[in-house]
């Protein structure tokens, strides 16, 4: 049995994690940022509706995929987890090998409708058990490259448009690495926070008029960036006018964040990719059991918020795909503190438009029960993302994931 991880490895995460920056909250509301320096060839107001929207939900802190999608038919699972295992008779959507955690019950309608699937044993091509190094690697998705560009920024660059509204980070003031790069994107705490600094109710357009006077005829890169900023703010108007349906969501950090995402999408302002964080999942101790505790609380929050999100999309639901990702998984064997230490393979959920749902995907490698037993990765996480990129956006996977040859997963249908 492993011993609790007392090394400083998680100090990096704890400093900004539990109920903090990575909580998915709108605690940083008010921060609005334009990221990227490329010239914008079409204004935000003229960008037009997006044909597909991808929502990337990051489970920060390394979620325990072996608890979210339980390999009940692998005898090593129950042998390795006498205190924290989820009983087989309580699992949902159980097949010959897997079953969903009982707190994922709000997602069962999506599963039975064929709009939710799980891909197990996914992850990085090589283990990386440092939270932030792994997050960086996952979101950059181009190992060995010296270019500072995230995979979602490359996706935006591979599709028509070039509006700052193509990519949006909601629920916090700092855009993730996946959105960083030459293509302009936006980051905001909430929909209503998207505004020009200093522009209040009594401004009467004076700030905007001054900016136009200052930058309209300037042809410098800075001036182009400034013009794209106020064009994006102008173009975001329909999202602000969309109804705020947050009362229909769980009163949790993630519920509030996804309510903002749905509102922005229903505004139909041209958003193609949205990122949201949920955490923290770094459960080295006190993980709880199937009857209650930290993992049960997180899983309940995750399922309730995603279910409410898809119920809130209205006529936009047919073009929205959501994928969950975590930087790495957890070890197979529970430790002496009734938790799990940093591992390798994990599970990804894919929901919404284009998903061949109602089933589990991936090649199961089997589990061991040794002190350092781990779930091996049999599906590179980029293969899952590449299938979404190709089928939903028609984009070149080579442009989004350079030097990577994706393998077929089968979780997505073609457009």
From TrEMBL:
Organism annotation: Nocardioides soli
Domain of life according to the entry: Bacteria
Region (Disordered): 179-207
Name of the protein in its database record: Uncharacterized protein (DUF1501 family)
